[in-house]
Amino acid sequence: MLTIESNNLNQLRSWGWDDHWSDQAAHLSTDHKQPGRIRGQNSDLWMVETAQGTQQTRKPSSKRSEYAPVVGDWVIVEPGPTETDPWSIQEILPRRSYLSRGAAGDGRSEQILAANIDRIWIVQGLDTGLNLRRLERYLAVAWDSGAIPEIILTKTDLEPNLDQVAADISIIAAGVDVRYVNNFDVENILELRESVAEGTTICLIGPSGVGKSTLVNSLSEAEVAEIGDVRAGDHKGRHTTTRRELFRIPGGACLIDTPGIRELRLWAMDDGLSHAFPEIEAIAVDCRFSDCKHGSEPGCAVVAAVESGELDEDRLHSYRKLQAEADYEKRKGDPRARAAKVSEWKSIRKSMKDHPKHKNRSR
Ligand SMILES: Nc1nc2c(ncn2[C@@H]2O[C@H](COP(=O)(O)OP(=O)(O)OP(=O)(O)O)[C@@H](O)[C@H]2O)c(=O)[nH]1
Ligand SMILES: [Mg+2]
Ligand SMILES: [Zn+2]
Q1: Cβ atoms within 10 A of the Cβ of 268, count?
Q2: Mean pLDDT for each 10-residue chunk of the chain (363 residues)?
Q3: Which ligand 1 atom sits nearest the alpha carbon of residue 207?
Q4: Which residues are found with C-beta within 5 Å of the ion, ligand 3?
């Protein structure tokens, strides 16, 4: 049975290790195998944080992509045969949550961006104005991961009318915390940091140039992540961050910085859309047909709500578009494989709900 000495345990805890992971690793029965968390990738080697510090490790030998570790994974590692050899990853502990999307390019495969995350910060910059439709897409993907999404609006120093922003965003952000951040305002940053519990893992996602890495640096009070400027004309970023990486910040939380996303494709959506569009789901229970697509079906309560002005038309349009995209992804994949995956995922989420970190989930 795996036993971890208490000072080593503290080291692991600072990377998010808790009783859940101790249980997951309890079956291990060897002296030199030990747990660690994937912090990032450095060409062919993975940086794994263990009780003995950072270890450069080789990937598992299996070629199957589902066994490829991602940033945030807890893994079991073993030292190399000699002291100078890299360590090797033996096992990936079952993921408590993970964020995935259709891979860039043809979108025909799933790309897992990060694992074992508690919150997702959807970061958008106020220098380019709000893009509500894009935020809806991000929210659906984020909810589907099993982590709790929050919207982080950066560059508040460049937006004179924050009341208008708050009014606009309230249409799409039901049940989601919206935070306003000026990365260069120390008090603002400290307040944000204090709101994050020790041991929490947060993944930052958003387009390039919105200030994800700047936020990682501000919260770290150090230049740990590289930042780049934005183009003068359209404020677009230059894709400065090129790798996903996990950082620890003072106060005991972990942040995962990610490269700017050009296009966020949906993948195998389960209930992400219901969480992202709760008011539509609530109205839809009154539709005549239970599989109503809220288009031209008779007795559609959702279309009626748009006609009466109760529901925003753009919101329904966006919902139907994302729903169609998600349905397409579902049909495209092998239905049995997908059903199995969804049920596995559901059981993971069920066990997560009992976890102390998730006791206060707002859904
Ligand atoms: N005015 C202002 N500028 C900011 C703020 N936060 C970030 N910036 C600037 O925005 C630019 C882009 O910041 P990054 O942190 O590199 O953006 P990113 O989201 O990490 O971009 P990628 O790594 O390309 O995805 C930099 O010039 C930052 O100085 C803010 O709160 N206010
Ligand atoms: Mg960056
Ligand atoms: Zn309907």
Answers
A1: 20
A2: 70 92 80 89 89 86 69 92 85 91 75 94 95 95 93 96 95 93 97 95 97 97 93 90 96 96 82 91 95 92 97 95 84 58 52 45 36
A3: 25
A4: 287, 292, 294, 300, 302
Give, for 254, the enclosing helix (H) or strand (E).
strand 253-257
Residue 214: closest CA among 288, 282, 125: 125
Task: Classify the phi-psi angles of 73: left when phi > 0, otherwise alpha if psi is within -120 to 50, otherwise beta.
Answer: beta
CA of 45 to the centre of ligand 2 (A): 21
Place of tokens 């079952």: 94
How many H-runs (helices) and E-runs (strands) does the chain carry?
11, 13
**What is the CATH number that goes with domain 98-257?**
3.40.50.300
30: helix, coil or strand?
A: coil
Phi first, then psi, for residue 155 (nearest 5°) are: 60, 40
What is the residue extent of each domain of the chain?
6-92, 98-257, 272-358
β-bridge partners, 180: 153
Q: What pLDDT is stored for residue 340 in this prediction?
A: 55
Confidence (pTM): 0.88
Binding site membership of 212 for ligand 1 (Cβ less than 6 Å): yes
Ligand 1 pocket check for 213: Cβ under 6 Å: yes
Query: How is domain 272-358 classified at the CATH fold level?
Result: Ribonucleotide Reductase Protein R1; domain 1 (1.10.40)
User: Would you say 260 and 208 are in contact if contact means Cβ atoms under 8 Å apart?
Assistant: yes
Name which of 203, 212, 208 is nearest 260 in CA terms.
208
φ/ψ of residue 348, rounded to 5: -65, -45
Contact 247, 254 (CB under 8 A): yes
Judge whether 149 and 122 are in contact, CB under 8 Å.
yes
What does the alpha-carbon distance between residue 325 and residue 158 come to, in Å, rounded to a whole number? 34
Residue 361, both tokens: 């989930």
Counted residue by residue, the chain has a size of 363
- Name the DSSP letter for residue 212: H
Q: Would you identify the CATH topology of the domain 6-92?
A: OB fold (Dihydrolipoamide Acetyltransferase, E2P) (2.40.50)
C-alpha distances in angstroms, 33 versus 29, 54, 56, 128? 8, 15, 15, 49
Structure tokens at 294: 């809220």
Q: Would you state the torsion angle of the CA atoms of residues 238, 68, 330, 292, taken in this order, to the nearest 10 degrees?
A: -70
